[in-house]
């Protein structure tokens, strides 16, 4: 019955999206590639995870990817966005996630990587993203998710880290990047994700936050990131994963959201964009495909809403 509903509204061009992702690597000279050179490892994570959700990770030359990822590691233990670039928590998580996809985290010097991450925790429990010191709840998520995947959460003060995240909770039930900062769906994903990973979801006011999150759905069926803003496929990840983690996903119209995501596909050349008829990119292709997976669209691997990796990858890591 549910399958019939999905097919009536247009289908996911899964093969086209696979081809689109596989050809990105070959187009190293185009403008998009030049602009994203500094965060290539992050783009690789989004692309490879999308391929895995689509069941096509085998189409990638695993050894080449792994040796390139390892050559992005800095002597401090952290990873840069590309070879020779400075390390940052974002790229360090992407490297760990890529190695997790290929079941290869054991090739890491785990104590060294976790020392790099734990050194970025500040006295109040917050995290800086790199040696330059900016603080943001995104960095709390990056550190907590990375260390959890490496089974090394004991290397940080988890209690303090949670305390800092809770101090960023607002009266509307959402979370911002620092205490008192406006609630935004992206930050909410980071805070709720970090609280889910550390077993601290009891700090979330689930009904209040659920209400704020479900109000992000606009007429077209798409979701926005905060009040009065335009819908964007990326929020099919940030909002939906948060709603699932707090068990309030039934509060939105899922069918309308599926339709919105499918309308953002480039049916001819593959890839998904932020809104219908805009240019596609690898990030929105992940957000669309992963969003559809969270909505239980047929034929896709299930994704873990906190770790942003396929559930089978997470089970393989934790049930070992
Ligand atoms: C592994 C899934 C995963 C994530 C890593 C870096 C990170 C952790 C999460 C980022 C969360 C975040 C802040 C997402 C929002 C990104 C975004 C679209 C910001 C745009 O903000 P505005 O103000 O857009 O330009 P709006 O939509 O509010 O107009």
Automatic annotation (TrEMBL):
SUPFAM superfamilies per the record?
A: Terpenoid cyclases/Protein prenyltransferases (SSF48239)
- Cofactor: binding details: Binds 1 zinc ion per subunit.
Which keywords appear in this protein's UniProt record, sorted alphabetically? Metal-binding, Prenyltransferase, Repeat, Transferase, Zinc
Q: What biological process terms from GO does the record include?
A: gametophyte development; root development
Task: List the EC numbers from the record.
Answer: 2.5.1.60
Instruction: Give yes or no: UniProt keyword Zinc.
Output: yes
Q: Which InterPro entries match?
A: PGGT1B-like, Prenyltrans, Ptb1, Terpenoid_cyclase/PrenylTrfase
Any keyword Translocase?
A: no
Gene Ontology terms for molecular function: metal ion binding; Rab geranylgeranyltransferase activity
Give all residue intervals belonging to the Prenyltransferase alpha-alpha toroid domain: 12-308
GO CC list: Rab-protein geranylgeranyltransferase complex
Which cofactors, if any, are listed as required? Zn(2+)
Catalyses: geranylgeranyl diphosphate + L-cysteinyl-[protein] = S-geranylgeranyl-L-cysteinyl-[protein] + diphosphate
Q: What does this protein do?
A: Catalyzes the transfer of a geranylgeranyl moiety from geranylgeranyl diphosphate to both cysteines of proteins with the C-terminal sequence -XXCC, -XCXC and -CCXX.
Complex and partners: Heterotrimer composed of the alpha subunit RGTA, the beta subunit RGTB and REP; within this trimer, RGTA and RGTB form the catalytic component, while REP mediates peptide substrate binding.
- Similarity comment: Belongs to the protein prenyltransferase subunit beta family.
- PANTHER family given in the database record: GERANYLGERANYL TRANSFERASE TYPE BETA SUBUNIT, GERANYLGERANYL TRANSFERASE TYPE-2 SUBUNIT BETA
- Official protein name in the record: Geranylgeranyl transferase type-2 subunit beta
* The species this protein was found in: Lactuca saligna
């Amino acid at each position: 019955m549910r399958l019939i509903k999905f097919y009536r509204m247009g289908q996911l061009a899964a093969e086209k999206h696979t081809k689109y992702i596989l050809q990105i690597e070959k187009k190293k000279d185009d403008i998009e590639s030049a602009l994203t050179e500094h965060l290539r490892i992050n783009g690789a994570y989004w692309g490879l995870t999308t391929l895995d959700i689509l069941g096509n990770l085998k189409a990638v030359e695993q050894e080449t990817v792994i040796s390139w990822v390892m050559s992005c590691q800095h002597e401090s233990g952290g990873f840069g966005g590309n070879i020779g670039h400075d390390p940052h928590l974002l790229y360090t998580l992407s490297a760990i996630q890529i190695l997790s996809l290929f079941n290869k985290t054991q090739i890491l010097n785990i104590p060294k990587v976790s020392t790099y991450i734990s050194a970025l925790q500040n006295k109040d429990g917050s995290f800086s993203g790199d040696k330059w010191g900016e603080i943001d709840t995104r960095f709390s998520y990056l550190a907590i998710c990375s260390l959890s995947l490496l089974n090394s959460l004991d290397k940080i003060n988890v209690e303090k880290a949670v305390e800092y995240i809770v101090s960023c909770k607002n009266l509307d039930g959402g979370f911002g990047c620092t205490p008192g900062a406006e609630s935004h769906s992206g930050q909410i994903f980071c805070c709720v994700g970090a609280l889910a990973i550390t077993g601290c979801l009891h700090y979330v006011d689930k009904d209040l936050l659920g209400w704020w999150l479900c109000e992000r759905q606009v007429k077209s069926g798409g979701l926005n990131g905060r009040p009065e803003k335009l819908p964007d496929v990326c929020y099919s990840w940030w909002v939906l994963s948060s709603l699932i983690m707090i068990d309030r996903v039934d509060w939105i119209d899922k069918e309308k959201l599926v339709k919105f995501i499918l309308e953002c596909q480039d049916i001819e050349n593959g890839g998904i964009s932020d809104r219908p008829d805009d240019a596609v990119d690898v990030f929105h292709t992940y957000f669309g495909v992963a969003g559809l997976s969270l909505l239980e669209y047929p034929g896709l691997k299930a994704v873990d809403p906190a770790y942003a990796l396929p559930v089978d990858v997470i089970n393989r890591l934790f049930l070992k």
